[in-house]
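I am writing to request your help with a piece of structural work I have in hand. What I wish to show you is a protein chain and, alongside it, a tokenised description of its three-dimensional fold. Could you please explain, in whatever detail you think fit, how the structure tokens follow from the sequence? You will find the record immediately after this paragraph.
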Amino acid sequence: MMTYLSKINLTSSLSSMKTLSKASAAFSLITATALTLSGCATTQSLTPQQCQTSNWQEVGYADGLRGRSGAYFGQYTNQCASVVGAAPNRVLWEQGRQQGLKNYCTELNAYKLGREGYDWQPVCPLEGIEKLEEAYSQGRYYYIRQRDLDYLRSPYPFGYGGRFGYSPFYTPFGYGW
């Protein structure tokens, strides 16, 4: 019974996806991408319970994996300042962050960040930095080339909705041609 219902739901989902126009699908994709990227850029707000019970070494490790600097700890201090009896542990956080930075500061990660269009954070030790910067530059080069090719392959790369101010649904003089 359960597999039959899931097949029905899958079939109805596929048929509804086919009815989406290209414009609405593109709009949905752009919206989802923007929300995802904005979620990465914002600071996670800690609840009072998290301020009291967080494993600061694990929090630091996660921040190190994201390439956050030591100054980021101030965010936690500010968020937990109003919570009685909760003080973030800077020593444990920094120990975890250093462990996370070991994974962040690799050539593979630098290349991956560049290729996906993300910024490289200057938090790595200076020894071996040239290799990391080179890997990031190669990934970034690939990202820019791919972005430019995608732009040139779009249906209206030099008009209609771009710099001329027309919407993609613009028809001259109200005619549909």
